[in-house]
Backbone:
């Protein structure tokens, strides 16, 4: 059939005999094939045609205004509008499109359809069992730009592209879009831009692994795993960094934990096998420390027992406690402040003639040269006895400078009658 076909307030049924595969309404890349204006008691019906190669500013395939046609079993393909609605521009219309496909149409906005109302939602465009594929908008609404009321019932919108937003549907503030069990897949840059109402089981999916198959389809077929049921293949979660895989088993950590194949005793979302466990007891160090089953006296995040295992010198008296902590809390003495517990100094050869656990040099430094726990005449006598060069034993040399002199006598006299600290 040659275009254009125009009907103004006429109720006509236009039906092909051979179906849309062999029956065309062709704009010949010059004009709009169909224009319908106004409503009558009997609906205008178009059934079984391919409407193709239309060219116009808006609605290159068809333009309907204040009309309520039924379009069924048709295909709108390769129509190009310079402004809006590559296949269809609908104004104030209550049209029904059933089992109709929109393929490879293009426009600035609404690559396949532009739906508008001149006033408050005067009509509803209803599309049921429709297919939208490979439509392009250089601006918004790769498949559909909607500023009126739109119902999509069991429709499929896939691989439509917008240069701006709404690869599938661009919903404007003045309109309403309702989805009923429809499927959106691989529309770029997004499936829907703007608010919409969803009824039933709608699918909005992409192709995160770029294999040409909709993520939702791969998941439904069992070809890829989606253990966390977020609609993305696990491999994409891991690649995009939205899920961790600390044990590199190809399964998101959260799923390992949920399935019980990994434990997470501290509930931080990381499998325990990925956390430091210096003592190899399969319990994270941080958890042992937090619950008090392991001690971390120096607060370095490592159980003291592991610090000691790694460096035995940190526990010179082998009592299972870090020397630094014993010295800090006063449970062990370091009278000469050399950083080593006095008993360890003694064990390593430092003198403790009276075996009281105190270094003789510390007691000498206090002026107690005979180690009897008091500063008295005996100590003064030692100073006088060894006046000059100190003996090898260090008796009489309070400050350890190798001399017994007035300084040492002053120490004894200043602490006369006192007991060593």
Residues:
């Amino acid at each position: 059939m040659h275009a254009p076909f125009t009907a103004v307030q006429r109720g006509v049924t236009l039906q092909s005999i051979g179906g849309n595969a062999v029956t065309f309404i062709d704009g010949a890349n010059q004009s709009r094939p169909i224009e319908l204006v106004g409503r009558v008691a009997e609906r205008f019906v178009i059934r079984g045609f391919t409407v193709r190669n239309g060219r116009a500013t808006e609605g290159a395939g068809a333009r309907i205004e204040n009309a309520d046609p039924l379009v069924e079993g048709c295909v709108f393909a390769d129509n190009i509008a310079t402004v809006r609605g590559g296949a269809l521009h609908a104004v104030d219309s209550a049209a029904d499109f059933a089992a109709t496909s929109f393929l490879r149409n293009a426009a600035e906005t609404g690559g396949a359809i532009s739906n508008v109302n001149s006033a408050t939602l005067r009509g509803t465009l209803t599309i049921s069992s429709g297919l939208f594929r490979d439509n392009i908008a250089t601006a918004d609404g790769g498949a559909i730009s909607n500023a009126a009321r739109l119902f999509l019932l069991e429709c499929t919108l896939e691989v439509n592209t917008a240069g701006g937003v709404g690869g599938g549907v661009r919903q404007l503030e003045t309109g309403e879009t309702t989805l009923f069990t429809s499927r959106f897949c691989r529309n770029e840059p997004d499936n829907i831009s703007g608010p919409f109402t969803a009824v039933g089981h709608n699918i909005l999916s992409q192709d995160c692994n770029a294999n040409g198959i909709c993520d939702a389809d791969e998941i439904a077929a069992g070809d890829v795993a989606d253990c966390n049921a977020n609609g993305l293949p696990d491999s994409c979660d891991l690649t995009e960094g939205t899920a961790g895989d600390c044990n590199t088993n190809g399964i998101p950590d959260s799923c390992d934990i949920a399935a019980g194949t990994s434990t997470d005793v501290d509930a931080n979302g990381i499998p325990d096998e990925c956390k430091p466990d210096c003592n190899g007891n399969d319990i994270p160090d941080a958890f042992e420390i937090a619950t008090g089953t392991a001690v971390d006296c120096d607060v370095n995040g490592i159980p003291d027992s592991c610090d000691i295992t790694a460096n035995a010198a940190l526990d010179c008296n082998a009592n299972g406690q870090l020397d630094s902590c014993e010295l800090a809390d006063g449970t062990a003495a370091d009278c000469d402040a050399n950083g080593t517990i006095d008993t360890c100094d003694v064990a390593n050869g430092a003198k403790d003639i009276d075996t009281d656990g105190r270094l003789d040099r510390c007691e000498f430094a206090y002026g107690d040269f005979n180690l009897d726990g008091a500063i008295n005449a005996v100590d003064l006598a030692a100073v006088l006895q060894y006046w000059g060069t100190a003996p090898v034993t260090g008796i009489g040399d309070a400050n350890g400078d190798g001399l017994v002199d007035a300084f040492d006598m002053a120490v004894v006299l200043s602490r006369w009658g006192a007991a060593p600290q």
User: Anything to note?
Assistant: Residues 286 and 301 are 7 Å apart (CA to CA). Residues 5-205 form one domain.
